[in-house]
Amino acid sequence: MQTIKLINVTGRDRPGLTAKMTSLLSEADMEVLDMGQAIIHDFLTLGVLVRFDASRQGVIDSVRAFFLSEGLSVEMADVSDLDYQSWVDRQGQDRTILTILGRRISAQQLSKLALTVSEAGLNIDHITRLSGRVSLNSEEGPGRACIEWSLRGAATESFRRQMMTVAAEMELDVAVQEDGLFRRHRRLIAFDMDSTLIQTEVIDELAACAGVGEEVADITRHAMSGDLDFTESLNARVALLKGLPESTLNEVAGKLPLAEGAEKLFRTLRQLGYKTAILSGGFDYFGARLQAQLGVDYVFANRLEIENGKLTGRVEPPVVDAEAKARILQELADREGISMAQTIAVGDGANDLEMLGVAGLGIAYHAKDLVRERSSHAISTMGLDSILFLLGIRDRELVGDVTRV
Predict the structure, then answer these.
(1) What is the arithmetic mean of pLDDT over 208-214?
(2) What pLDDT is recorded for position 226?
(3) If we measure between CA atoms, which residue out of 345, 185, 323, 327 comes closest to residue 276?
């Protein structure tokens, strides 16, 4: 008669434990139905589900004796055929990945998130730390912490919104994604430029040089918040730059402040074979500088009209607005032969909403309130390289990074 037994082992980890256990189990030609292991701070949690002839119970006893002799704790439980089949029948159920990001993550924060998960009828069945080991040395700068929860069950839009609300209240970021085929197989990522790839609005920098900083900044704020039509606001701001020397563009381009983590992100994306794009309502002059600096594949942005070495105060048509960004993203996906589910879009302003909406993964990055509220995913506490966590990539896998888990 065949029997099924679950073996759970906990205690201080050391090399050779699994090898010895499986060697003992092999003596009875046992079938391994399931197996899982986790190690936290050199502490082992190991589970094995085996099926064997009941007459070979002595081998199970030998396994128990071995682990006890090594100072580990062992628990064993019989699993009925009915319970096992019920477990098998549950495979293929919808699954959800919840990614939790923050400079530091506390038990209080996780408690509130876990309660929200439970109240939604979902169950956490696997937890993985994606970030590197947390240093206690505050001199190393802002921390990076990321934990990924694998949830059994499908997440509703209501659950997604609730999680984002709870996280925002605790100064965390969360991403709720279907655990599907494309989550780790995205292939194209498009970025807004101003206040996304760079920590400034270029047009505000140009306006300051032209002596019209306050007027342009006021229009910019209203445009990015969705209070003004983008094309109308762009033309109004550029008109105020009339007469600005072309040399000023070069001066501003030479000191663009990159967003935190931008270089690490692009370095890793190139290594992974991603195509990257800048889809910006800003200006192609500056997009070209970033393209050379970061190795961006495509740049689509607005072009300032220049005559006799000075800005005319006009933008050359057609204008890259919200609709154009979404359309270009689709065209790039078609050009690369991928589905929209394999695309990512990252932006911060109202004119990014359409692009974020059509992408397989749309991320509001340090975005205005309107954009964050209308987006499915938001990053407000971390740098651009934290996007890699949303793809399930660990710190130790980052190209050129010395962190090891």
Answers:
(1) 94
(2) 67
(3) 345
d(CA 77, CA 29): 19
What 218-224 contacts at long range (C-beta under 8 Å, 24+ apart), as own/partner pairs, is 223/349, 223/350, 223/351, 224/195, 224/348, 224/349, 224/350, 224/351, 224/368
> Which CATH number applies to 2-89?
3.30.70.260
Q: Please give the positions annotated as active site.
A: 192, 194
Domain 188-374 has CATH 3.40.50.1000: yes
What is the rounded distance in angstroms from the CA atom of residue 80 to the CA atom of residue 63? 21
Instruction: Please answer whether residues 337 and 316 qualify as being in contact, where contact means their C-beta atoms are separated by less than 8 angstroms.
Output: no
50 three-class SS: strand
CB 3 within 8 A of CB 78: yes
Is the confidence at residue 402, as pLDDT, over 50?
no
Q: Can you state the angle between helices 246-253 and 202-210, rounded to 10 degrees?
A: 130
Cis amide prior to 317 (ω within 30 degrees): no
CATH 3.30.70.260 holds for 95-178: yes
Structure tokens at 371: 């954009």
